[in-house]
Every structure is written in C-alpha cells, then in structure tokens.
Amino acid sequence: MNTYKQIEAAILSASTILITAHKSADGDSVGSSLGLFHFIEKLGKKALICHPDKAPSFLDFLDLSPITVMDEESEKVTQAFIGADLIFCLDYNSTDRVGSEMQSLLESATCPKIMIDHHLDPQGFTSITISETSASSTAELIVELIEQSGNGALLDEKIGTPLYLGILTDTGSFRFNSVKARTHEVLAKLLAGGVQHHLIHELLNDTNTASRLRLQGFAMSEKMEIMDENSVAIISLTKEELEKYQYKKGDTDSLANLALSIKGMKVAIVLSERDGIIKISFRSKGKQNPVNGLAANHFDGGGHANAEGGMSTLPMPETLDKIKALVSEYFPCEVKI
Ligand code: 5GP
Ligand code: MN
Q: 6: exposed, middle or buried (C-beta count within 10 Å: 0-12, 13-18, 19+)?
C-alpha cells in the first residue's frame, strides 16, 4: 500500500481527526489545512483544525470558520487534543514549530500522528511521514494525497481553492525554482475541479491597504541597506515604525522578495520587531546561492534552501551587527581581477 493510501485508511478508521499547522500562519499552512479539512469531510468524516495563531488578514476572503485558534480559544484547543484519535501535522517538521503552549499538547498526545511537510530536516515524531523537501508546498502534497489515494474525482472548488492558494503563496505566484512540471500538473487538476484561479489572484494580489503600501514605500526608501560587495540587501523595521504604519500580520511578507528583485542581488534579509522579539526572513536567488543555514545555525530557525525564517532576542542594533558580520562570512565579496 502506498503511503497516501495508508493515510486514507487512517482517516477512514479515525473518529476524531485534528489538523494542526505551524505558528505564524501563512498561505500554505492555512490553505493545506482547509484543503485537507474539506477533503476529509468529502470522505464522510469529521475533522477539526487547530492553529497556534490567527491567519494573516490578507486571507480573510477565505472561509476561515473551521479553524480554532490557540491564542483565542485555548480551552477548546486543549479539549481537541485530548479527544483526538488522529493528528495531522501540516507544513512543519518539528514539535517546537507550533509554539510552546500547543507543543506540550502535541507531545502529550498518544494517538497516531501524520506529518505532511516540505521543510528540510524533519524530526521523527510522527507515525506516518510524508516529507517531500523538493515539493513546492504542503498544499501540493495534499493534492498528491487526494490523487494518489484514488480520490481525484472528489476534487472540487471547495477543496481546491485553499490548495491553489497554498501553492500560489509558497511559490511567489509559481515563480520559484521549487515549481516543477508536476506542480503545474497538480494546478491543472485543481482548475479542472472548478477552482476560479483569476478570482484568487485578484483577492490576494490586487487587494491592498493604503497603510501596507505606505509601509512598503517607507521600508524601501528609508530602511533598506545594500551591502554592495556581498550583493545582500537588509531591511529592518522597529516596533515603533511598524506601529506608525498600522502594521498587520502579513504586511511585511513581500518585502524580502521585492528587495531580491534588485538586479544582481543574491540575498535579501528582512528584520521586523514584533511580539517582543525580532523576526527575521532570509530569501535568496537560485540553487547556487542557498541561504546556507544562516537562520538554522544562528537564529534558532530553519526552512528551505532559498527561504528561511528565524528570530533574535537581541535589540535591533545588535541583531543588525550580528547579521552584517555573518553576511561578510557567509557571502564574502567576490574577488574581481
Ligand atoms: P518566513 O521568512 O516566511 O517566516 O519563513 C521562511 C520559511 O522558513 C518558511 O518555510 C517557514 O515555514 C520557515 N520558518 C520560518 N521561521 C522558522 C523557524 O523559526 N524555524 C523553522 N524550522 N522554520 C522556520
Ligand atoms: Mn509551506
């Protein structure tokens, strides 16, 4: 039996299925959770989604009602973990990725757990593990689950819309080198199932707030430092600056790729101070310029070869000094003759 068939069998024999995903919800964690949720319902079973925190507001156009958030309803989430007889772990590779409160619930749960993920270095805490580090997104792997368990005919707009969105957001609108021929085959199946791709693009990409655009303008004109010799751009935003532009979760997500679009730039790093820490995003271009584990080795993080995330508890000036020293070490200037 292939692993996807095994997962289908586990769904069909479970009575209380819990779907979880990582902290700092994003398009893929939310999209893959909702897609799996609607697939399970279509199989005639019931599921619950519990996430550590709220989805960013740019995803408000989705029906987020199946998601219970730990930050808001911790008792309901606790009960869900206690009552579950099958837990899905989507879009994360180790238990510390769900935040400390949910981590202890997850680690105490004795029922079978299934990981479906595409991040590097999966930790072995699940009984069934799909860890495809070359997959574009976890949402793409949920489509594989539906197809390869023999349920492709069940794909409809309700299941497909969040999955399309998950693939779209994790691939920068199908641009990154994680996109393979198979990704487009999977997308074709979603469109054939009724997904209205043009509406998703419009609702996601062509819907901004004035404050988000102003924050982007400020970040680019006032807060971007370019280390020319190393081809690295660094943007840093303090808590006060984010507050001035009425920062909402997700507002800084596009900054790293925008900076990386500068001709000749190899790496872009964005630091933003929130929730008492500095969140750091690393992005780089191409297989020949991996982020090189900068986040995994020095900022308590991880992720993918060209996209990593991490954090710092040092104040902003010290964090910036540390990053600049590491940039010179990891991405030394090329010797020109
Ligand atoms: P972002 O910069 O968008 O927060 O994250 C980039 C990638 O790294 C995403 O795939 C994200 O899931 C992953 N990532 C972000 N923060 C962490 C972290 O603290 N630990 C690990 N292992 N991965 C992270
Ligand atoms: Mn993902």
A: middle
- How far is the centre of ligand 1, averaged over its atoms, from the C-alpha of 23 (Å)? 9
Q: Is the CB of 281 under 6 A from ligand 1?
A: yes
Q: Specify whether the CB–CB gap between 118 and 182 falls below 8 A.
A: no
Q: Which ligand is nearest to the CA of 90?
A: 2
Neighbour count for residue 201 (Cβ, 10 Å): 14
Counting ligands in written order, the one closest to the CA of 140 is 2
Q: Is 70 exceeded by the pLDDT of residue 337? A: no
As a whole number, the mean pLDDT across the chain is 96
Q: Are 77 and 103 in contact (CB under 8 A)?
A: no
The CB of 302 under 6 Å from ligand 1? The reply is yes
Query: Is any atom of ligand 1 closer than 6 Å to the C-beta of 122?
Result: no
pLDDT, tens only, 74-113: 999 999 999 999 999 999 999 999 999 999 999 999 999 9
The closest residue, in CA terms, to atom 4 on ligand 1 is: 309
Query: Apex CA 142: angle with CA 140 and CA 144, to 5°?
Result: 75
236 lines ligand 1 (CB under 6 A): no
Q: 3-state DSSP call for residue 261?
A: coil
Q: What is the DSSP string of 116-138?
A: EE--SS--S--SEEEE-TTSS-H
Only one residue has tokens 């990154």, namely: 176
Residue 324's contacts (CB-CB under 8 Å, 6 or more residues apart) are: 227, 234
Query: Which of 304, 253, 113, 158 lies closest to 98, judged by CA?
Result: 113
120-to-178, 264, 267 alpha-carbon distances in Å: 13, 27, 19
Ligand 2 is an ion; its neighbours by CB within 5 Å are 28, 91, 137-138, 170
